[in-house]
Amino acid sequence: MLFRNRFLLLLALAALLAFVSLSLQFFHLIPVSAAKNGASSKSRKRIMPDPVTEPPVMDPVYEALLYCNIPSVAERSMEGHAPHHFKLVSVHVFIRHGDRYPLYAIPKTKRPEIDCTLVANRKPYHPNLEAFVSHMSKGSGASFESPLNSLPLYPNHPLCEMGELTQTGVVQHLQNGQLLRDIYLKKHKLLPNDWSTDHLYLESTGKSRTLQSGLALLYGFLSDFDWKKIYFRHQPSALFCSGNCFCPVRNQYLEKEQRRQYLLRLKNSQLERTYGEMAKVVDVPTKQLRAANPIDSMLCYFCHNVSFPCTRNGCIDMEHFKVIKTHQIEDERERREKKLYLGYALLGAHPILNETIGRMQRAAEGRKEEIFALYSAHDVTLSPVLSALGLTEARFPRFAARLIFELWQDREKPSEHSVRILYNGVDVTFHTSFCQEHHKHSHKPMCPFENLVRFVRRDMFTVLGSSSTNYYDACHREGF
């Protein structure tokens, strides 16, 4: 009898455990076994996983996902956060253009078929996309400095042209603009209701992808704006150096940095092997494939969930992509350590930083002109600025990256102004080289504006290790 009771008890316990196990699998609380070779039992077109949490070690696929910056849920950000007794005075926004079609093609392969027309019911979706297209179609008489006045105001080709902004890129900046609108206009009332052309400063390089990205952000920020109030200036240099672009020493730093990149690539035998394998797939010399910068095109395939190209000799695959992307990440790490790029960045970023603090100084004096500035630019614009500011841990500028300078006035001490710097919504003010020490010795929540002014007007040249005290001397010093 006792044995029978024990047997029934064990049987009931086994049944309970089986039920619990099945329930956990049903609710996806424990994993079920994968198909052979790790593949799903159902064929999938997707070539990338969804990001959840940052991996404990460098993961090239995760880094590439961050770079793609695919629009999804509303973003949380730290823009506009300050104690109640601070008043927002001016905002200066640097953006990289949004997602684009490649600038290079992989030799002897078919171009990825991506549609660059804007379709309201196609992913990625934005509720203002259709209204954006409608508003852009009315802007032919707006004021754009030449040659911007000859560029299309939104992408519109069924098969994207090289370097053309995609629908993803437009949506990325519509989201950026809407986020900044909610913070700076609705919450902080940065611009008056009757704002005019004088309140804005808008500048773009002469590429359609930068102008269109700037317009998408501007539409998200100032929806249905009056075209008569909009004036976009043209910036001929990707460094936004205006009339101060001639800098021989900066170019020497760049040449040394490019030499460093070349030597690092030569040391990477796995990278060379990968280029060789890919060259065999497309039947071209390895040197020709490398010159075609295949990672630019591969990132487009990756970001748009399109399978990498194949030929009769085989396929370019995810392992090739991982090797090249891993090398990119290692190159960024060595770049920070060797400091050659820092010299280039300090001299490359000085003109635009100097112009920005001049605009901020005028706002601090009470002038209302150009209190919102937008620079629509490239990765090669933002990257030197990030490096010059000392933001060594900042990731390489993703598609639609934004770097923002906020100027604040202390209402309790109106003569005192502070600055905040934010990168993709993260407050990085106290990671900058000019405000790290202040953060250690002060309880104030923001950085004194004079710290930034002193850094740009004097300390940037000290970092270069020269006796120069101004930009011209630093650019032309002999014996470098």
Task: Give short descriptive properties of this protein.
single chain, 9-stranded mixed beta sheet, two-stranded antiparallel ribbon, 15 helices, globular
What report would you give on this structure?
The protein has 480 residues and is of the alpha/beta class. It contains 15 helices and eleven strands. The chain has helices at residues 2-26, 60-68, 129-136, 167-187, 208-221, 248-267, 269-282, 286-291, 294-303, 318-338, 340-364, 379-388, 436-441, 449-463, 471-476, and strands spanning 86-96, 143-144, 200-204, 231-234, 310-311, 314-315, 372-377, 402-410, 413-423, 426-427, 447-448. Strands 1, 2, 3, 4, 7, 8, 9, 10 and 11 form a nine-stranded mixed β-sheet that branches. The protein has a two-stranded antiparallel ribbon with strand order 5-6. A hairpin with a 2-residue loop joins β9 (413-423) and β10 (426-427). The chain is globular, with a radius of gyration of 26 Å. Mean pLDDT is 89; it is low at 16-51. Keywords: Glycoprotein, Golgi apparatus, Hydrolase, Membrane, Signal-anchor, Transmembrane, Transmembrane helix. Belongs to the histidine acid phosphatase family. It comes from Orycteropus afer afer. One of its GO terms (cellular component) is Golgi membrane. InterPro entries: His_Pase_clade-2 (IPR000560), His_PPase_superfam (IPR029033), Histidine_acid_phosphatase (IPR050645).
